[in-house]
Structure formats: C-alpha cells, structure tokens
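Per reviewer request, we include the raw input and output of the structure prediction for the construct analysed in the revised manuscript.
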Amino acid sequence: MLLKLSLSGMKNRLRDYLVLFSGLVVAAGIFYMFEILASNEAFLKSNSTISAVVFIFHLGSILLGIITLVYILYANSFLMTMRQRDYGLFMMLGAKSRKIAQLIFLETFFVGIAATIVGVLLGIGLAAGVNQLLVHQLNLTVSHFSPVHFSAFLTTLIFFVIIFFVAAILNATKIVKLPILNLLKDADTPVQVKRSKLLLFVETLAGIALLGIGYFMMFKVMNFGIFALVIALVTIVLGTYFVFDGVIIFIISLLKRSANLALNKLNNFTLAQLTFRLKDYTKMLSMVAMIFALALGAVTVGLGFHKEITKMTEATNTYDLVLNNSQKVAQGQVRKLQPISNTSYQMKETADSVYFIQSEFNQTPLKVVEMKEAGDFTKSEYSGDRLATDVTASDQLRNLELPSQRSKNQVFLSESDFAALPENTSSLQLIQVKDFSTSLEKIADLVALNQKNNPELSGDNNLSLSQKYDAYTVYNSLFSGFEFMGFFLGLAFLTMLASCLMFKILSGAASDAIRYQMLNKIGARRNLLQSALKKEIGILFLVPGILGIFHVLFGLQMFKSLLQQPYQGIWLPFLIFTVLYILYYFLTVWLYSGIVLPKEKNS
C-alpha cells in the first residue's frame, strides 16, 4: 500500500521528477565522458606532448568529482524538499518510521542508480558522436580512443553508487528524526540569511586573496610545475565560493538600501527572491562559474591548438605541394588547385650526381624557410648562382629531392650543357595555393599520387617536411590530441553547465509560482512580472559567466609553453559561448515563465 502511494505521488510530480532525473543523467554522462579520457593513460600518452598530462587529468577528475558531488547533493536536497510533505502525510496516516525510512532509501538509491546507468549510455552516445564530429570534420589524428571504456564505466558506477548510497542513508535518517509538523511546513519556512558584517568582510577578502594566489600560480606554472597546478586548483575553487558567498550578499544589501533602485517597479521583489534563495544560489553559482571556466577554457585551448597546426605549417614551409618526377602527373589535377605559383625545374640524374639548369633558378628563385637560432623562421629566395656556390643554400634544394637523390652531388649547368647529357629528363614541380586548408583534400590526393609514382617516398620515415602537407601531417599528429581533448571536454562541460543552471532555476519554480500569483492578485502587471523574472534569471546567468571569463583569461597563461599566442583569436570561442549562453538564458526564461506566471485569460 505504501509503495502504491509513493508511486502515485511520483506520478503526480512527474514533471519535477523528469527535471531531477534528466539532471542526474547529464551529470553521470559528463562524468563518464571525462573519465574516458582521464582513465585511459594510453590515449593521454599517445595524444599529448607533455608527460604531465596524465597527472593533470587526475587533478581534473578530482575537480569534476567535487563539482558533481555538489550537483548531486543539491539535486538530492531538491528531491527531499519535493517529497518530504508526502512522507509527513504518510506518517500522519499511520505509516511506521521504519517503513518510511526503507521507502526513502529505496527511492533515493534506485532513482540515482537508474540515472547513472542511463547517464553512462548517454555518455557513450555523446562520446561517439563528438568523436565522429571532431575526427572527421577537423581532420584530427587520434589514437587509443573508444567511446566504450570499462575502466571509465567502473569508476563512474562506483563513484555514483557510493554517493547515492550515502545520500539514501542520510535522507532516511533525516526524515524519520524530523517531527511530522516540520515535514509538512518546512517548505514554507523562510530561509534566514542575516550574516555578520565582519564575517562578510573577512570572507570577501579571503575570496579575493585566494583567487589572487590561484591566478598568480597560473602565471608561474612553468616555475613551480605540478605544485602550481595543485595550489591553483584548491585556491580558485575555494576563492570562487568565498567571493560569491561574501560579495553577492554585500551587493544585495547595498542595493536594498538604495530607495531609488529597490522601490523602482518590482526590483525589491527581485532582490528579495535572490536573498530568499541565497544559500542555494551561492553553491550553484560557484559551481557554474567553475564549469563555465572549464568549458570555455577547454574550447579556447582546443581552438588554439587547431590554429597552432595551421600556423606552424605555414611558418615552416613555403611550398604547399612538391611533385617529384612530375612528368608522370596529369597537369589537369594540378590546375584544379588553382595555384598562385607553379614552378617546374628540369633534372637529370646519374649514379653519383643530380643536374639542374642554373638559369631556371635565376629566373624563378627557390623559396625557402630557414630557422634562426632564436627559434624564429625567416623566408629567403635562392637564385641559381647562389645554389651553385653555397652549400647551405643547396641543402634547401636537396630536401625537396627524392631520398635516393639527397646523397648525390648537385651540379648546376647551362641549358646547352644540360641538353647534351644523355640521361632522361625529369622535373621537380613546386606548387603554392591560395589557401592550404581549403585545398587540403585535393593536395592529399596529389601527395598520394606522388608517393605512388615514387615508392621510396612511402612510409612515415621518409617525411622530409619539405612540403606543407608533410609538415601538416606531423603537426596534426602532435597537436590533435590536445585539440580533441579541448573540444571534447568543452562540449561536455557546456552540456553540464546548461543542465546545472536550468535544473537549479526550474527546480524552485513551483514554490516561486505562489509568490508570482500573489503579485498578480494584488494588481502587478504581467509585463512587470516578466521583467522581474528576466532580471532575476539574468543575474544568475551573468555573475558566474563574468567570473568564469576571468578564470579563463588567467588560466591561458598555463599554455604559453605550448601555444605561441594563446590569446590570439580568443574572441571567437568567447563569441560562440556568449551566443550559446544567451540561447540557454532565453530557453530557461521561457520554461520558467510557463511555470510561475499566471495563465493569460482569453478575452
């Protein structure tokens, strides 16, 4: 009988349970997606350029575990707030405390486990989809990655089973100890938010100081290494919470004292709403700020590595395509590239020498990129006269030859002397295109054809980095791992970010609806109610977003050793995130309005 009553109560609150369940599913899915990377050391080691990346991901697992724990505890609190009135009614009807405790335990535990299993399945699907999207659309080279990973599944299952088991015990113990009257009236009891001014001041200073230490450690990560990462992780998490818990209360109290602001329209109601839910908002805003920073930072870094591939490719090579023995290549394929520069040099080869026409290089000098001692690249041009007399210059030409030709002598002749040689003439064709990235697929086809015509070029060991495609292949394999991690985690954290904000706001909509209905009954216009609602939700979106942006701006300092210009083009990921953030804001406003605002009467 008690089980039937419980199922009936859950059915009546199906919409609330769907919000709760979907939030838990997303949390489990995101945790699993992160663990796919964090627990797969073979993937991390084969797709990164720094050995510490495994330890970094272990730290990331701890941070995500803390965020997920806070998220689940909040969701659990929402579950108990939603159901404790029902439990109180059951006890009034004569249900024994032991039976209620068992019911609460089973309900909490099995809802959590079901959400975990569904979340893992969701994580597998999302991981597979993101993998296909990134690898195929961005042409990434990623190894040892699989959406299905037993270690990640086991870690996720154990983590969530422990959390929900402990939560179920705490829920059962708490409910049976509370008086029935408290169970029935607790939801209507206002939250006391009065705080000592001295405590607020100390907490605010502590938050700012902790953030300062964390930001400083990000600047000095190359000096202090892993120690800086650990300190930054701890201080920024604590500092974020303290800043929100201290500064927000202080700002709200100042705004309330301003009669011009507080008494204008429904501003006082909006401030009261924020004050009333302050404890929950503080935890949620702190968590959302951290997730926002992780998501935006991951996408920014991923985009930075994506640009780094192209930047390094362009900086280290002049020619987009090198065709050896190009007389074997149908020139119609070359013309499809619409080259901006298409140069061919005639060659003849003997057992110990390679012969060129010197005047061809005088007419069209060889373009090269040379690396200086400081690590900078400079572009130069070598004429035939220079190549004939300068061994260093001729080595640049040697890099464009076939592997079997590079050990031979280079001889530069006049046209008549070259024509007198009895050997067959071949040609070395050097091509530049307007945009390497957009022509990449066509270039790849010609590179494959060049390797087919010259079998000795096949194999990774014969990459000479003499053409951009070879350099692109090397740099893509070098940076693709970080690029993949950045985009993968960014998309995952963005999903969790949206879930956290929407779950928090929508979970309090049922109780907020009573206050909006009261305002409507005393004559508040609908447009004023909508304006107050938009302001309240806008603050909840804006504040963590601003702090998250500060976290990212300072956090990019940690990647200066890997990215030449980590802040270049930063506007693009920021713009993408801003647009998505605004869309989530409007979606939340729309859903929340449908719950709390009185229905408009048809005239």
